[in-house]
Specification:
The protein has twelve helices and eight strands. The protein is an alpha+beta fold. It folds into three domains: 9-67 and 77-124, Acyl-CoA dehydrogenase/oxidase, N-terminal domain (Butyryl-Coa Dehydrogenase, subunit A, domain 1); 135-260, Butyryl-CoA Dehydrogenase, subunit A, domain 2; 265-414, Up-down Bundle (Butyryl-CoA Dehydrogenase, subunit A, domain 3), CATH 1.20.140.10. The strands form two sheets. Strands 1-4-5-8 form a four-stranded mixed β-sheet. The protein is globular and about 75 Å long. Bound molecules: flavin-adenine dinucleotide.
């Protein structure tokens, strides 16, 4: 299997379209929806839903691979590029506005969880929603007070009611990205869902963890709070309370019985292996926006970056900008490797966490440096740079903090288990 560094044509075509969307629909509304947190840009959502249906065959949800048809073996086999495509789309949308990217209709983390932990029937049932008439959202709820980095400490409980054959879920989930749009029944949106992680047997530890598809409007589930945040303010972040919430038996992702293995927990980790490089791609989009802005502003002031000069002949600004670009490219190469491995079904826990660690570092440092170089232009709310500086930090927090991903990298390299190195 070879690695191709040239952007595949179908991806380049989608990037071209998304760049126009980013320039015309996202940047123009960025400030307004940053200032008016919790307002919903319906026109953007509607537009993107239709656009993704026509160009992407649905949405930003991971796609099911089509089974081979008779005669397919005669056709030249093209390398799989599903995750590479997703990463490129997410990078471009986040270049436009990361808050808007997070409210682009489609699967998000919820669909990724169904994709990695669900059965073929569940994937067919739940992922098909994103291609339907109305824009639809899905979220994933893992974090609880006292169970963030240590996901195995979750206390949400799911108990099977033998009489009705329903799961009864109790607990409270915090910081659920897109939780509101995925769960609340909006007239404008289709039937979304939140994938809620709970324990079916607290005595079994990680082996007892399972994910449940909790559909929009389920009785006993409420949006208890919406966070006010530093950045990504166009994206809702919800607290979801579940009190005797009843979920159909078939909505459990994975086995309903507890084997003495960590299969349940592995389902969560498998989801993150797929999505961490996508979070990294999103951060890289924000970082690229900042670097390009700096270069444009410098060019307006007559300052061009003179590539190829010996270091001692460069100005400090030239060195800074070139360093930013080096970091940006190296972070993107790590993403490409992680998604290439995902596309080719190779275990990528190491590469996935590496890409997220690097992108988290790069986007926070680049946006900070950009604000420093631009001075007042970087600090004023008249321009978007200060917003990108605020939007950047989340890359290093959700789906495993920088510290936790460093631990994953160390464990993978040194061959330690989670218990041995924590
Ligand atoms: C805007 C936003 C959106 C989010 N979206 C979602 C979502 O959609 N779904 C979801 O389930 N969660 C979501 N989260 C939650 C996020 O994943 C957690 O905040 C994150 O995993 C950290 O958990 P914590 O907040 O409990 O921090 P803690 O685990 O309490 O960590 C606090 C600090 O200690 C460090 N730390 C912890 N353990 C170790 C260790 N062993 N070694 C070294 N350092 C350590 C951490 O890196 C961090 O710096 C979101 C969070 C935010 C802010």
């Amino acid at each position: 299997m070879s690695i191709e560094f040239e952007t595949p044509k179908p991806i380049a075509q989608i990037q071209f379209v998304l760049k126009t969307v980013a320039e015309n629909m996202m940047r123009s509304q960025s400030r307004a929806f940053d200032e008016n947190e919790h307002e919903i840009p319906y026109s953007y959502i509607e537009f993107m839903h239709n656009a993704m249906r026509s160009i992407g065959g649905g949405s930003l949800a991971p796609k099911e691979e089509k089974p081979a048809k008779e005669g397919d073996e005669k056709k030249e086999k093209r390398p799989p590029i599903g995750y590479q495509n997703l990463a490129a789309q997410i990078e471009m949308l986040s270049w436009g506005d990361v808050g808007f990217y997070l409210i682009t209709p489609g699967g998000g983390l919820g669909a990724a969880a169904v994709q990695s932990a669900g059965s073929a029937e569940q994937r067919a049932k739940f992922l098909a929603r994103f291609s339907e008439e109305k824009p639809t959202f899905a979220a994933m709820a893992m974090t609880e007070a006292g169970a963030g980095s240590d996901t195995s400490a979750i206390r949400t409980r799911a108990v099977l009611d033998e009489a009705t054959q329903e799961w009864v879920i109790n607990g409270e989930k915090i910081f659920v990205t897109g939780g509101d749009k995925s769960f609340k029944e909006y007239e404008q949106f289709g039937k979304g869902f939140v994938v809620v992680w709970a324990s079916i047997d607290p005595t079994a530890g990680r082996a007892g963890m399972r994910a449940f598809v909790v559909e929009s409007g389920t009785k006993g589930v409420t949006i208890a709070k919406l966070e006010h945040k530093l950045g990504i303010r166009a994206s809702d972040t919800a607290t979801i309370a579940l009190v005797d919430a009843r979920v159909p038996y078939d909505n459990i992702l994975g086995s309903p019985t507890v084997e003495k293995t960590t299969t349940g927990f592995k389902g969560a980790m498998a989801t993150f292996d797929m999505t961490r490089p996508l979070v990294a791609a999103s951060g890289i989009g924000v970082a690229r926006a900042a670097v390009e802005y700096v270069k444009e502003q410098l060019a307006e002031q007559g300052v061009q970056i003179r590539y190829g000069l010996p270091r001692q002949k460069m100005t400090a600004i030239e060195r800074d900008v070139i360093e930013m670009e080096i970091q940006l490219r190296s972070a993107w190469l790590l993403v490409l490797k992680a998604v290439w491995m995902a596309d080719n079904k190779k275990p990528n826990a190491l590469e996935s966490s590496m890409s997220k660690v690097k992108a988290g570092d790069v986007v926070t440092k680049i946006t900070q440096k950009a604000v420093e170089i631009m001075g007042p232009l970087g600090y004023s709310r008249e321009f978007l740079l200060e917003k990108w500086f605020r939007d950047a930090k989340i890359t290093d927090i959700y789906e495993g903090t920088g510290q936790i991903n460093r631990l994953v990298v160390a464990r993978q390299i040194l061959g330690y288990s989670g218990k041995e190195l924590r």
